[in-house]
Specification:
heterodimer, A: alpha+beta, 7-stranded antiparallel sheet, two-stranded antiparallel sheet, B: alpha+beta, 14% strand
């Protein structure tokens, strides 16, 4: 049994007050309505995020100019219960930017399961595994984390905006 | 099973790793070096042997990144899923179009 502390896996679950079908469709068909805008892969922010609804389908973003950038592929497609993606987005090997590496050996996997707990309650469980496959670019990843204006800075700014919104937008 | 998974069983020598994996010893060493440079693996000396094991801190950092991302994403997803569809404006007029 691997020590859970050393497992390169992230698990999340969230219970949403929405029917199973809606939870699934918001996740895979309306991703751009909720995916944090700071986490785009292309050079410019995404306008839409697409999931081709079949095994082997592409998962990609499109920016305002129509440029497409791949995120991964659909590995399992069982609507509205389960979808699995390969996640090809890691730190670049020659640059500090996040890039899509098409090599399947360097892709992690994201599985999302949807369980109806009632007519309008759905449990959504997410597991992002094999993260160590992004390990080879990990030094760059760390540079992104620790540098000025980096991920952590973006997140801190985001948290501030949210906190203000929660307080009713008081400045 | 990957080298990384093998390492999660505890400290192990290169020879042992190579014996249980379908790759050559130089390939194992090369992979270990990459993982070590990435901060995901650390080594120690046990007598004349060098043992490799996962670096919990490195793995935790890698995981923390994705953990943060998904915490943010899932929370936003929950809000979106629970928001009453307002005429469900379809923001994807080009959804079916093929681009080259």
């Amino acid at each position: 049994m691997p020590n859970p502390i050393e497992e390169a896996v992230v698990r999340k679950s969230v219970r949403v007050q929405a029917p199973l079908d809606r939870a699934f469709s918001v996740f895979v068909e309306q991703m751009e309505t909720w995916w944090p805008a700071t986490h785009h892969i292309g050079k410019t922010p995404f306008e839409s995020i697409f999931v081709e609804p079949r095994i082997g389908g592409r998962w990609y973003e499109r920016d305002a100019a129509g440029k497409l950038t791949d995120w991964g592929k659909v590995l399992a497609w069982e609507p509205p219960h389960r979808v699995t993606f390969s996640w090809h987005v890691g730190p670049g090997h020659d640059s500090p930017d996040w890039v899509c590496d098409p090599d399947p050996a360097k892709a992690s996997e994201v599985e999302i399961r949807f369980k109806a707990e009632g007519p309008s309650t759905t449990l959504v469980e997410l597991e992002h595994s094999k993260l160590e496959r992004h390990g080879e670019g990990y030094q760059q990843l760390r540079a992104i984390f620790d540098g000025a204006g980096a991920w952590s800075g973006i997140l801190a700014a985001y948290a501030q905006v949210v906190a203000h919104a929660m307080e009713g937008g008081a400045a | 099973m990957s080298i990384f998974q093998k390492l999660s069983g505890g400290p192990i020598a290169v020879n042992e790793l190579a014996r249980t994996l379908p790759v050559s010893r130089p390939a194992v060493s090369q992979h270990l070096r990459v993982l070590k440079d990435a901060g995901l693996v650390m080594d120690s000396k046990a007598g004349t042997r060098r043992l490799y094991q996962l670096n919990p801190e490195g793995v935790a950092r890698l995981r923390a990144h994705f953990d943060q991302m998904w915490t943010q994403a899932m929370s936003a997803f929950q809000t979106a899923a629970e928001t009453k569809p307002v005429g469900e404006k379809d923001a994807k007029p080009n959804r079916r179009s093929r681009r080259t």
